[in-house]
Every structure is written in C-alpha cells, then in structure tokens.
Amino acid sequence: MVASPATGWQSTTTVEEGTVRWGARAWAATTIVAVVAAGGVAAALRDAGPERAASFITDGQGRSLVQHGFSTAGSAKSAPDGLPDFSEADLDAEHADMGTNFVRFLISWRMVEPSPGVYDEGYLDDVAERVSWYADRGYHVMLDMHQDLWSMAITPDGAHGNGAPAWATYMDGLPVNDHDMWELYYLEPGVIRAFDNFWNTTGEHPELQQHYAHAWQKVASRFADEDAVVAYDLMNEPYGGTLQGARFEAGPLTQMYQLTVNAIREVDADTWACLEPQAMGFNWGLPSGLGFVEDSREGGPRIAFCPHLYPLPMDLGDGYSGSSKGLVDGTISVWTANTLRTAEALGGVPIILGEFGLDTTLPGALDYVDAVYDMAASTGMGVAYWSRDDGSWGPYDEDGTARNLVSVLDRPYPRAVAGEIVEWTSGDGELTLEFIPDAEAKASTEIYLPPDAFPDGPVVDGAEIEAWLPSDGILTIVPGSDPGADSITVTISAA
Known about the structure:
Elements: H1 24-45, E1 64-65, E2 68-72, H2 88-98, E3 102-107, H3 109-112, H4 121-136, E4 140-145, H5 189-198, H6 207-223, E5 229-233, H7 245-265, E6 272-275, H8 279-282, E7 303-305, H9 312-315, H10 322-345, E8 352-353, H11 365-379, E9 382-386, H12 404-409, E10 413-417, E11 419-427, E12 430-437, E13 445-448, E14 458-461, E15 463-469, E16 474-479, E17 488-494
Parallel strand pairs: 2-3, 2-9, 3-4, 4-5, 5-6, 6-7, 8-9
Antiparallel strand pairs: 1-10, 10-13, 11-12, 12-17, 13-16, 14-17, 15-16
Helix pairs in contact: 1-10, 6-7
C-alpha cells in the first residue's frame, strides 16, 4: 500500500498496480491539517526544549562559524557535467552584494561514480577548481550529495529526478507516471521501488549503500586536506519509499549515515558530517526520529544537523500573507522546536538550515525571509538559502541584475567568533552579539557589516576594533579590558 508520508493514510492502490489516485491539493490539504495538529500536540505534550543550538561548526583557528550563503545551485542537478551554471564573476558579485561567507555546493553520486567502482577524477578536479574560488575569497564550503526523486533514470527522457547513477536505479519494471506537481513523483511505484532497493527494504541490493559510502569516501579523500571544505551534507532530502517516519529515520537512514561516516573517517578525521532528516514531514514541521550516529574521530565528534524548511502553504505556491501567514508562522515555530530537540538528541550538535526559500515575487515574501533569518540568529543556526540560481527564487535576474532578495540578505552577522556564541540579533545599521571569549582561539572575531549601511564606519561598544575593511564590510574585534569575563556583549552601530 502507498501511504502519505505525513499522515499515514493509505490509498487503495498497491505499488504494483499503478498510480496513487489522490489529487495534489487534497493530499497537501490533509498534510497541512496533520502539521497543524502535530504542532498543537507538541505544544501540549512536550517541554519547551532547548532555546538555541548547543554548539557551532568551528574553523581551523578554533572560531565558531556562522554560515551565511547559498545552495549553489539547482542548475547542477541535470547538467551533463554535473556543475552549476556559475562563474567566478558571479561569486564576486555575490560577495560584494551580500557579504556571503559560505556555500552548500551541489555534487552528485552519478558524477562521482558513473560506473560501479569507477570514479571520475575529472569531475572531482572540476569541483576542486570551484572550491578554490571560494577558498581564495575566505569562504567555507559544504559539499552536498544531492538527489531528488532518486535519479534521472526514473523516466526515459531524464527530465525528472537527479542524483543517483542509472546503474544504481532499480525500479523492477514498476511504472512512473507523469505529474504536473513534481513532488507527486515520490508517490509513483517505480520511484518508491528505487528507494526501497537502495535502503535494502527489498533485501535485493545490499551493495548499493556500500557503493554510496565508498563514493563519499572518495570525495572525502580528495578534499580532506582542503581547509575551505568544512562539512559534507551526506544526502539531500532522504526519502524512505515504503518506510516512513520514525521507522525509516531510526532504521535505514541512521544506519546509512553510520556506514557513511565510518567510511569517511577512514580518510578524513576532521571534516564535519551533516545529517538531514526525511524531508517529507520534517520540512513541514513534523518531528524527526533520526537516531544517534557515532563519530570515531579523536578529539570529539563532528556531526551536524542540516534540515530544510519549506512550510506546506508555500510548497503549494502561497505567499506570506493572509491565512497562509498564520500557518507558516505556526510551522516555523514548531519546526524550530523540533530542530533544536533533534540536534540535542544527536549530541548537542551544530545546526545549519541547509535550504529554505520561495518565489520572492509572492506577497510578503521578503518578510518571510526576514523572519527565517531572525529565527536562525536567535537560535544559533547557519543558513544556506535556496538557491543561487537566477530567477524569482534567487538573488539575480538572468542578465545579472540584482533582485529584491539581495537587499534582505545583505544583513549584519558574525562571520567567525573567537569563542562560544550565546546569541546575536541584527537590524539595519546595528548588530548585538553575546559570546564567551576563548583565549585559545588563534584568530580574532570577524563581523560582516553591509558597507552601505555603515558609510562612516562602525561604533563598537563592549570590544575593541582591531580592523575595519570598508571595501569588504569586515570588522575585526577583540575583547576589551576584561577578556576573562564569562561572557561579553558587543553592540555595533553605524557612526
């Protein structure tokens, strides 16, 4: 039987017999009800949970990093060379316009391992070249093994799906019918079977996860010594096929993550491993059943939690206004609580919001973007906006003209903090940062300030200015007269 991932409701159509027969709107409406109900249950039955993330990804100098950047980019998904439509000049524009310091860079299994056990060194060379663009500009990189609908091989024309190679796509002759709404392909029998074979729910293909872990090991071996690469996002938006919810997340998904982390640690002891929950459900505000993943490295685990946020009204094309706004606000609140709880259960791990975004021509869109970034700042999450593609979801038009999103993302934030971040808030022409200084950190705290908002430079209270580079908008500060204080609060405003 085919079950709605969020509700557990079953249709009367078996996987072998054909297509699920409920409409996208009815299915989505049912899920919205489930999300709202889950939020009410969570509020009624669970304690408040953590208020903010317990830790941050750190750099080689021991500083806590705040990620502010893009997923780059959706154009890589089906590109013959597996690379995004993105140039060094595009990176320079992004850096100048929004002060970004991070990228979630899309890679794919189909390109890493085009044939079983055969790895494409030329593709890894191409990825390494783009990583060098970011490294030269002081960015940090998370490599994201991306997939949607498993593989381009789910349909003969390759027009739907991306990620896995064709040789790892076993649909066992089951159909994949056409849909106007791309998410509904996840409910097609052939797609479900492809996932079931990967997770070995069928018992027929235990080798596939071994191949996947070895592909990651190959990537990690290549980038282990690249300081700019700080994290590996092990799988974009996992989907359990016929297994859903906690049965999937606590079972096959956690097992695959453990297998992959073990493989990576054989060649790379330092880079953070980012875990995503199942997207269907968690993206909309439902809790995760993801299990604990051991990290064998010396010096403490480097595991992070990297969920996505796509409130269902927006998945259906609504903006951030009217009745939709209330549903979205409720989703953000419940999603935040569930994210913090999951990160705590995984060992108090850092959090990166690996994707969120929307068509910014929709009503209230920029207010939504502001709301999510404010939430991330108050709870200690990094953010990779989806995506760096041109068009209505992105920061630029196809001719390179800056869009409305640029002004919203060009906001003050702490890039790298020499200590433990407690919290920060930012607004137009101001930023407040509270942190516990770490005398062992080997570099100073860096703050990004939009140059146009600070034309005469910054005024700093609570710390001393070490340097101000107006061309880049980077302020470097050091603790003031009492560097041994338990915590310090720094306020920065325009002169």
